[in-house]
User: Which sequence fits this backbone?
């Protein structure tokens, strides 16, 4: 390839990001970067900021970047590079169960207080957290930009940008993503699972059908995002004829992308004027979270 390839591996919480990061940190060493967090109160308003100038020598050997603080503005630090963006997603029920069970794991290790019961804990959680994370962290839609977007607007904004990603899929496809990116970078493809939740305190079965339906209804943007993108895989336009080592890409990757796009359900009719609901919901969850600690 004539241009350097740098992989941006978005780490959405509870979407196998630890497994992905461990693999590339292990095999790339200093060639793998966890994007630094900007410790500034303005971060939530204007997004993350970096002190890397374009072509910064500190990034000369970096071939893959991840971390919760990775944002699109870091692209400017890699002038001339081909940035391949990837993200793994999760359905809202699985996300909330995984996050709650992780809090219990954290508590059992002595790193935090015992979580309240699930119902009380859930009241303190923001709605559509995956969509919100992508908007605020990676795409840097802080305050007030975030609250200009309705539910329909949030889905449309994210889908327009995910269309240009190299890989988008369900978190269970982490192994496929790692293998493809590893081939691209010429490192071992076999991935080691790094699940950080030791055991499940609650499951969908233990919660019951009413709770499962409620969580899905409370988080319609995340539900739609996962349903429409979980099977997409590789973008046909982003699947190169050759990988970084000059080896031809597997034709099954493009075929899966076409098949996944064909099987994606139609976009739901989400509210187009519920910006105030998002604002009030975030304020309420923030207050509730402080009260239950």
Assistant:
């Amino acid at each position: 390839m004539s241009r350097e390839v740098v992989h941006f591996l978005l780490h959405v919480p509870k979407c196998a990001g630890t497994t992905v990061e461990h693999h590339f940190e292990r095999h790339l060493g200093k060639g793998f970067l966890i994007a630094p967090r900007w410790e500034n109160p303005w971060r939530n308003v204007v997004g993350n900021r970096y002190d890397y100038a374009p072509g910064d020598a500190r990034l000369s050997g970096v071939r893959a970047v991840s971390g919760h603080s990775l944002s699109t503005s870091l692209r400017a630090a890699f002038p001339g590079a081909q940035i391949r963006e990837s993200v793994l997603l999760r359905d809202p029920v699985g996300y909330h169960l995984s996050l709650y069970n992780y809090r219990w794991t954290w508590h059992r290790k002595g790193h935090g207080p015992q979580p309240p019961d699930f119902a009380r804990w859930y009241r303190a959680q923001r709605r559509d957290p995956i969509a919100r994370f992508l908007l605020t962290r990676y795409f840097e839609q802080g305050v007030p930009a975030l609250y200009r977007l309705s539910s329909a607007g949030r889905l449309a904004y994210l889908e327009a940008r995910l269309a240009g990603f190299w890989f988008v899929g369900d978190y269970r496809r982490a192994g496929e993503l790692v293998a493809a990116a590893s081939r691209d970078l010429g490192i071992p493809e076999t991935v080691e699972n790094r699940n950080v939740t030791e055991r499940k305190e609650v499951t969908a079965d233990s919660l019951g059908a009413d709770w499962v339906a409620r969580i899905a209804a409370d988080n319609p943007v995340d539900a739609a995002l996962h349903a429409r993108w979980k099977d997409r895989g590789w973008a046909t336009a982003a699947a190169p004829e050759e990988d970084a080592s000059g080896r031809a890409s597997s034709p099954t990757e493009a075929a899966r992308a076409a098949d996944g796009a064909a099987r994606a359900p139609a976009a739901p009719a989400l509210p187009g004027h519920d910006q105030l609901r998002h604002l009030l919901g975030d304020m309420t969850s923030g207050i509730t979270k402080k009260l239950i600690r």
Summary: The first strand starts at residue 5 and ends at 10. The chain has one domain: 5-292. The two ends are 52 Å apart (CA to CA). The chain has twelve helices and six strands.
